[in-house]
Amino acid sequence: MNEDDRLRRRRAIEMRTPRDNRFHPHTPLASGAEFDAVRRMLERWGPHARKIGDDAAVINPVGDRSIIASTDMSVEGVHFRREWMTPQEIGYRAAAAALSDLAAMGSKPLGVLVAIGIPEEWRPDMDGLSDGIGEAAQMADAPVIGGDLSYSPQLVLTFTVLGTGQDPLLRSGAKPGDIVYVTGRLGGPGEALREMLAGREPVPGHRERFVHPVPRIREGLWLADHGATSAIDISDGLSGDLRHLAAASKVSMRVDLGLIPALEGVSAADAAASGEEYELAITGGEIDTAAFEREFALELTRVGVVESGDPGVRFFQDTEPVEVPRGYLHFT
Amino acid sequence: MNEDDRLRRRRAIEMRTPRDNRFHPHTPLASGAEFDAVRRMLERWGPHARKIGDDAAVINPVGDRSIIASTDMSVEGVHFRREWMTPQEIGYRAAAAALSDLAAMGSKPLGVLVAIGIPEEWRPDMDGLSDGIGEAAQMADAPVIGGDLSYSPQLVLTFTVLGTGQDPLLRSGAKPGDIVYVTGRLGGPGEALREMLAGREPVPGHRERFVHPVPRIREGLWLADHGATSAIDISDGLSGDLRHLAAASKVSMRVDLGLIPALEGVSAADAAASGEEYELAITGGEIDTAAFEREFALELTRVGVVESGDPGVRFFQDTEPVEVPRGYLHFT
Known about the structure:
disordered N terminus, 10 helices, homodimer
């Protein structure tokens, strides 16, 4: 072992000895293989990782505002398939999914950085991808401020979104007594995905919800101003994502399946398991849902309550407890 | 064409009509296929992309400081090969390469976001990757503040680095009359790469420079404070990266091959073409190189001068013009 090796070995050992973990508490994560892997990384990083586990990182203070940052990778064949969408839709959707994390933080976008790994056979579709990314940037008022472009055997798009926030909407803010709300109507992406996986053409309305999710940026800012205590954007499915809120806030949630706003023809259980919605699930006190709906022409629906108790989510049909699948996980 | 399609088509058209390009000038880019692709994206994004083309994005002002951001993707089989390095070295190197962009901006790191796409067969190496990433985070005092983890057919690591800066060191600041400097001694990574590509074991010192580049963070801050006018970190090779500085600053550079600091046994031309060095190339007035060397135990060497004229770099051996290969480009 030479001197360099010794130095590196020593560094690696230091890294496994957290010195000041009390100064950078991470947000508690729900159970699951992906989160076990994250927990293990955090353990190894010790003091060299800080405040991990929310929808986005909060860097504070810079002047009187915090900087909010989040990163999101989309991989061909894992997060999307080429035959399901046009290049423009693929670019739009990957960017919108990343921007949705700013919505969940009640953060105003500053800009987007995009790293693109692109195979040779995708090169003619670069314009389409660019247009879709530009469409999302325009919609969220988040200009592209940086990027990286290289060859890759699969198309890989990593978006890092930056925003500001004065009082970010964390996952850890839900309190017993709060109400659980959800924006929009759920189920479209789940139904579309099921059809496409079976090689069938999805219903146009469901397909549109899958390929053209809308990051709820303005809605997130409004909710942060009107009594929301915690928020998450629905990427794994309402049932899975509420589990993240419950774990982060160390609370129990009770959700009434009959209240879940589902698209016509979609069961409440399927709506609760439908991922990649990019609607917001929030907790808060009494929020004026009618005012929200007037402002955004979008439903805001009460679906449950926050209680004290073991962190987790219990679903009920009328007064009967029911099981709801956890939704879609990418890392399994 | 339905209403949604029409709406999207209209958005796409708007996107190709830059309205306020004068408010977000991009940094001029050098010639080359990768940069043509970037130029084309910028054209399509119009006003939805801003100030692209430096080592990192500058978001200003937030309080009295700017936020500096850069993103960098490393793909297995493109930027590295598994058989060349340990998992810890792969994690360290990808993170260090991204952090090097903050060094080139004279920026103080705030933190790192890491998006990891990982194949099943790499899962046992997650700890090694984590340790390498943590090692780079520790070295640069840039904690991991966020991330994303998903499955991918190849290992893909995208790092987004964030820092602050009061007076960032841009690529566009070189002026006729400036001197061109370079930190450290070049050639190690190029020699190591050549040997590894030929299936041979590189010299340990060269291998170490390849697998364990040091982001020159403190050096970049010092140089920004001591008269540097522009900077870039050497990733494509000194000859290629000086071309970026010259293009961005709209100046001509004249470099004396005999002055290039090369490792023992490496020719000056090979040193000038060696990529992935992550040393800094800078321009500036008279800088106290002896003070720099005392401070950092690292050489700072004058290699040329900045002149007015067509943007580009001319190399001389004594007084004879010589051709130097452009170095390594990933996107060809």
